[in-house]
Amino acid sequence: MEEKSEILDAMNETVEMNNTLLAQVKDIVYNIRTEVKEIQPLKENVEKLKTELSRLKRETKKFEESIKHPKKCPTCGKPLLPEFKVCPYCGENIKLLPEPLIALKDYK
Ligand SMILES: [Zn+2]
Predict the structure, then answer these.
(1) Is the pLDDT of residue 54 over 90?
(2) What's the gap in Å between 4 CA and the centre of ligand 1?
(3) What is the domain range of residue 96?
(4) What is the rounded distance in angstroms from the CA atom of residue 69 to the CA atom of residue 108?
(5) How far is the CA of 72 from the centre of ligand 1 (A)?
(6) Is 23 in the same domain as 6?
(7) Model confidence over 14-23: pLDDT tens digits?
(8) What gap in Å lies between CA 80 and CA 70, rounded to an integer?
(9) Span from the CA of 102 to the centroid of ligand 1 (angstroms)
């Protein structure tokens, strides 16, 4: 009888230890889940920012191109022949505007 109760005690201890470990594991899993939930929207925001950034990069490049190649209309971006004084697409007066002014107009 004595021996059996010792074995039972030992078993009981083991079960309790397992329960404590299990509770700890549950806590950890819960914490990880919470963190993942917090990270998810951040990830989406980063993706949105990436898209926005590449869009801005494209627009900056387009803008730089329009300054580098004045033979395109600065207002509508359509290609122009060198002898054109007025854009046939949007009516922009090209020859009268000095280049820095064209660039400033684009910023509006
Ligand atoms: Zn134009």
Answers:
(1) yes
(2) 98
(3) 70-108
(4) 20
(5) 8
(6) yes
(7) 889 899 999 9
(8) 9
(9) 12
For 74, residues 6+ apart whose C-beta sits below 8 A from its C-beta are: 66, 67, 92, 94, 97, 102, 103, 105, 106
Q: Does residue 84 contact residue 70 with C-beta atoms inside 8 Å?
A: no
What distance in angstroms lies between residue 36's CA and the mean position of ligand 1's atoms?
51
C-alpha of residue 3 to centroid of ligand 1, in Å: 99
47 and 76 in a single domain? The answer is no
List pLDDT tens digits, range 79-97.
887 778 888 999 988 765 5
Do 64 and 37 lie in one domain? The reply is yes
Same domain, 31 and 60: yes
Q: How many A from CA of 81 to the centre of ligand 1?
A: 12
Q: 79 CA distance to ligand 1 centroid (A)?
A: 8
Can you give the pLDDT at residue 70? 61
Which pLDDT value is given to residue 26? 95
Spacing, Cα 57 to ligand 1 middle (Å): 23
* Same-domain check for residues 8 and 52: yes
Query: Does residue 24 share a domain with residue 57?
Result: yes
Are 63 and 106 contacting, i.e. CB atoms less than 8 angstroms apart? Answer: yes
User: Higher confidence at residue 43 or residue 79?
Assistant: 43
Same domain for 98 and 63: no
Whether 59 and 19 map to the same domain: the answer is yes
Q: How many A from CA of 85 to the centre of ligand 1?
A: 11
